[in-house]
Amino acid sequence: MHTCDSLLSSLLAGAHDEALAALYALDGSPASLDAARQRAVHVVQAFQEAFRPGDAPSALFSGPGRTEIGGNHTDHQHGRVLCGSVDLDMLACAAPNGLGVVRFVSQGYPALEIDLNDLAPKQEEQNTSAALVRGVAAKIKELGYPLSGFDACAVSTVLSGSGLSSSAAYETLVGNIFNHFCCGDKLDPVTIAKIGQYAENVYFGKPCGLMDQMGSSVGGAVSIDFHDPADPVVERADFDFSQSGHVLCIVDTASSHGDLTDDYADITREMGAVAAYFGKQFLRDVPEADFRSALPALRRACGDRAVLRALHYYDDDRRAVAEAQALKAGDFSRFLALVNASGISSALHLQNTWSIAAPRQQAIPVALAIGRELLGEAGAIRVHGGGFAGTIQAFVPLEKLESFRAGMEALLGEGKCHILHIRPKGGCVVVA
Q: What is the pLDDT of residue 187?
């Protein structure tokens, strides 16, 4: 157990370098480890300045961002996905305060204070961090654990608007702090993910699925089957990405998600229309053979785009499973081929790389086209996340990394190509 002072001195002495390296120095470089150590020191010092914690037991916590690897728009149809945690995260120093309140400072944002005796959802808190903290606390109390207050100070490297899910990272971070101080670290990562989803659905006001939270909380590459969304089947697809000879790049196309609600909603609506033709709510409940035998009638009843999007669902649902299997078998070439196939299907069948409302703005297809030219026959590239705007994802061979980054940034602007790693550990106590 550390006080804040002893935590700081042990970090400066390098006593926690192994723990930091496992999360933040996945490229094996001394520079990455040094940067991670400096960041951890910074957050402890910021915590000291904000709260003056004295001798309270202090610890470091992490909630990582996540990336969607396979299964593009399959989760809302109760399908299968493959996602992974990344080495960009929210890092917090926290300590019990004995006050029955949570006081949370996130650098760059207003401080918040949550009374743990008042955990009802609040309309005025929707779409705020306070709602997420209150929701996580409420669910943990509902599970039978006694709540106690704490102070926390957090910094974040999760890229805004990147599709890496900063809200899930925050929920995972807060869940791990409560788990450590109030639950004796008894909550497993899947439970913490479900708690985060509850907070986002009920308190934050966003009806999200569970992929984001699972990817952040469980860690590594994670295969998830949403046939029963209340109790998804979660399986790690253990693979050492650091030995693959490839680096994960998330490329910001500098295109806005604004005014795209209808585009996203149309995917769900059209897939749902195909399911409804068979008297079902979700495509997962429609046998693919029935779908294919009814194609002529479906074209007339639902339209061609709906048929194509349903076709993407069935294919990408299978691919997400095959991608996980390829990783577990150590067949990275097969994995890359499947990622490329998923990207082609998203562009041609799902049609989520640009909005028909703004045909002159096709930043994602342009970035994909130039990215493929830069990669040649190597690596893999696809739209990332919901699509229509935002980011693309590429697995880039190390020998092509500098030319790929230079080419992407020549097209899109400096700092638009971000080099990430799939980190093997999800939400956690970094140093206790």
A: 97
